[in-house]
Amino acid sequence: MVTVQDRPLVAVFSLGGTIASTNARGTDGVTPRLGAEELLAGVPGLDDFAKLEPVAFRRTASGDLTFDDLAALAAEIGARFEAGAAGAVVVQGTDTIEETSFVLDLLVSAPNPVVVTGAMRNPTLAGPDGPANLRAAVRVAASSEARGLGALVVLNDEVHAARFVAKTHTSSPAAFRSAPAGPVGWLVEDRLRFAVRTERLPGVPLPAGPVPPVALLTMSLGEGDRLIGQVGALGYAGLVVESFGGGHVPSWTVPALERLAATIPVVLASRTGGGDILQATYGFPGSERELIARGLIPAGFLNGPKARILLSLLLANGAGIDEVRTVFADI
Ligand code: ASP
Prior knowledge:
Blueprint lengths: L8 E8 L4 E2 L8 E2 L3 H6 L9 E10 L6 H16 L4 E5 L5 H11 L6 E4 L12 H12 L10 E4 L2 E4 L4 E2 L8 E2 L7 E4 L2 E4 L19 E5 L7 H6 L6 E6 L10 H8 L4 E5 L17 H6 L3 E2 L5 H13 L4 H9 L2
Parallel strand pairs: 1-4, 1-5, 5-6, 6-7, 13-14, 14-15, 15-16
Antiparallel strand pairs: 2-3, 7-8, 8-11, 9-10, 11-12
The structure holds aspartic acid (ASP).
InterPro entries: AsnASE_II (IPR004550), Asp/glu_Ase-like_sf (IPR036152), Asparaginase/glutaminase-like (IPR006034), Asparaginase_C (IPR040919), L-asparaginase_C (IPR027473), L-asparaginase_N (IPR027474), L-asparaginase_N_sf (IPR037152)
Keywords: Hydrolase
Organism: Actinomadura syzygii
């Protein structure tokens, strides 16, 4: 008979978020209160998949997580893998999952599955989705099929690649979408099916020191160049521009972007939420062709927040403009 001792070991890290949020008597609103052990205790049937190692790592709203927290988490996940864990689950707030999962995708080099999950409905509401999401995440993290795919995000019985996924709704349990590719897999009756197998992206070493600040600026109708002009003076080490469409900005902002791109890396992403930055289609002033010719670096399929993550981690490892350009060329 297979006992729980024979199951793969999965480390479960709790960081807070809606999934862990309840209210204390006499207070307004829910706040993160539950740790990994309490969260796991509320999920039936986990022994079927894994032996669990709960780790209460942080207890916060996910908007307060930092690069330092995530570098420490990546190091701790790596240490647990070396000590024998087959997979890891990270349980946190959904607001920043699209960024934190991508940080882990880049920083955790082992092939063991790293699965990030959370919940859209907190435990005080009718129909909280946390227990089902946590159960599905453990199922995926314990699976040998999930090895070598990079970090995954599991919610609503769907499996998403960290590099593609984004939160697209403020409250729906179906908030997570992967616009460029769709989910890479799904679960049904505890069966896990992968429709797509992603190859690992080249990783980035764990930062040895602080991660330099990188700004993210979304273009909008009639935007001027005042903010762009301030980026260098404010001490930012890089800029990601979320442009219109396939890589377009108001023509009058181009000189300021070109000046900045000569001094710090300026990456060109799209505000559309899906699709690659164009490289060779439009020739009007402010087009992608003009911006790339003037030194901006196309973000490939990465959305603005994810491009900012990659740029930040490259800068933290001492990359200059040319190295940043080379890395993004493969995205
Ligand atoms: N609304 C958030 C969540 O879904 C709060 C957070 O991200 O911490 O968990």
